[in-house]
Write a structure and sequence with these properties.
Elements: H1 3-26, H2 32-46, E1 53-56, H3 58-63, H4 65-73, E2 77-80, H5 93-109, E3 116-117, H6 126-134, E4 139-140, E5 144-146, H7 157-169, E6 173-174, E7 183-185, E8 188-190, E9 193-195, H8 198-204, H9 210-226, E10 230-234, H10 240-255, E11 261-263, H11 266-276, E12 280-285, E13 290-296, E14 303-306, E15 309-311, E16 315-319, E17 322-325, E18 329-333, E19 337-342, H12 348-356, E20 361-362, E21 373-377, H13 387-402, E22 408-411, E23 420-427, H14 433-442
Parallel strand pairs: 1-2, 1-23, 3-4, 4-8, 5-6, 5-9, 10-23, 11-23, 19-20, 19-21
Antiparallel strand pairs: 7-8, 12-13, 13-18, 14-17, 14-22, 15-18, 16-17
Bound molecules: zinc ion.
């Protein structure tokens, strides 16, 4: 399917005609307009001590290597957005592998470092993940978490149906504490992207008032902050100038939260997630209700404890019952071991999952010992067989643990006491009007 029929199918004829009109207002025949939009976003983030992450199809990089090298030299991270701007779900595993390999070749020739992949239309399938792992990507960022922050009742049925088409296209998943955080699948870090994105907000819902867009983005940030997740905002540089005021509003909102939000690039998020994966607590019993705790972790780790006391070190207020512990070795006093326990028949995937979430876990604990731990789980069937079941069971399990009123230690999700993460990302699908129309030919 080519871009025209694809766009008409997902956007409808009227929307596609609108899109064509906006192409001529948002792009130019030279790089000038896009360059300006990219530099404005870079400047805005630089004033907050950070930088954006951009994804670009290899053929577009190949036509604009100087521009991309320039924004990379100003701190932007560059990731791969396909060889051409096509939907991987329409390709076989071999075709996905071949096209991704070709994209890597171009990035190497152009000497642009990359660590991550985002699919056009966030269009991934199981074969894509396998391809990314085989080709050594560190992360991908295709899982689209939907935040219900716009009241759709206020829109016409036509707009509502266009919005629903976007959700189907993006394979949107519900927003929970679990889905809002990265997770490992084999060697690949999967970093969620939050929607609605700029295309849905501006073009589908036709919300173009920057203040209203800023309000929507801030509300997403609020939800992400509460759930200790990451907000990966995706917006296209073609709307960069329109979006800049909204971006400023979002950044001001994020930095006004009681606890700091980590404003960063996706590559850093992936590296942090891999680093954090190896963090572990070790307990040595002293006498009744006292343990020496050794936290094997790096300097940046955030150690949190609730419903317990620490000897000779102070606890710093953090959020809710959680208090922050600066020490890496300390003596804890609590009515039970501040650790989760799993029954002998609970499969190892549950233990791995809880470790990834930052919890200390004792596996193979007999049921009669359950009172010695913060919480005891007997989950012989594990955490589900298909993706939907896994997502639901993992979300439910985390919700249960997070609501526990029992002594428990954990590693926070983000470094240096930060409560949530915010990564501003964008897809450079086209730089010029020529690129926009070349897509139609390229995806054939
Ligand atoms: Zn794209």
């Amino acid at each position: 399917m080519n871009l025209v029929s694809f766009s008409i199918k997902t956007k409808g004829v009227a929307n596609f005609a609108r899109r064509l009109r906006t192409v001529f207002t948002r792009f130019g025949f030279s790089e000038r307009r896009t360059r300006r939009a990219l530099l404005i976003a870079i400047q805005t983030l630089q004033s907050h001590g950070s930088a954006p992450t951009y994804f670009i199809p290899a053929v577009v990089l190949n036509r604009h290597p100087k521009l991309i090298a320039e924004i990379a030299s100003r701190g932007a991270e560059i990731g791969i957005h396909g060889y051409v701007h096509n939907d991987y779900r329409t390709l076989s595993a071999e075709q996905q592998y071949a096209q991704t390999g070709k994209a890597i070749e171009i990035f190497k020739q152009r000497q642009i470092d990359f660590a991550g992949f985002r699919n056009p239309y966030l269009g991934w399938n199981e074969a894509s993940l396998d391809v990314f792992r085989r080709l050594g990507f560190c992360y991908e960022t295709n899982e689209a978490v939907l935040h219900e922050v716009v009241n759709l009742q206020h829109f016409s049925p036509m707009i509502q149906s266009g919005f629903a088409k976007s959700l189907a296209l993006f394979q949107a998943i519900p927003c929970t504490s679990y889905t809002l955080r990265p997770h490992m699948e084999g060697t690949l870090v999967r970093i969620p992207t939050s929607i609605p994105d700029d295309e849905m907000t501006f073009d589908r819902l036709r919300i173009t008032n920057p203040q209203e867009v800023g309000r929507i983005w801030s509300e997403v940030m609020q939800r992400v902050y509460e759930r200790e997740g990451i907000y990966t905002l995706n917006y296209h540089p073609e709307r960069g100038i329109l979006c800049n005021q909204a971006l400023e509003q979002l950044l001001a909102f994020a930095s006004s939260q009681p606890l700091p939000v980590w404003l960063t690039r996706l590559g850093e998020v992936a590296r942090w997630w891999q680093e954090r994966l190896a963090f572990r607590f070790h307990f040595t019993p002293l006498d009744a209700g006292r343990w020496t705790v050794q936290a094997n972790c790096t300097e940046q780790a955030t150690i949190l404890g609730r419903y317990l006391d620490i000897e000779e070190h102070s606890l710093h207020p953090w959020s809710g019952p959680d208090q922050r512990i600066e020490a890496r070795e300390f003596i804890v006093r609590a009515p039970c071991l501040p650790c989760l326990a799993l029954s002998p028949r609970t499969p190892v995937e549950v233990e791995d999952f809880l470790h990834e979430q930052g919890y200390p876990v004792a596996a193979g604990v007999e049921e009669q010992a359950h009172a010695d731990y913060a919480c005891y789980f007997d989950l012989p069937d594990g955490l589900g067989t298909n993706r939907e079941e896994q997502r639901n069971l993992r979300s439910e399990l985390l919700q249960k643990i997070e609501a526990l009123e029992a002594p428990l230690l954990r590693f926070g999700y983000w470094p240096s006491g930060q409560r949530a993460a915010l990564a501003i990302s964008g897809d450079i699908d086209s730089v010029t009007i020529q690129d926009f129309f070349l897509r139609i030919i390229e995806v054939r």
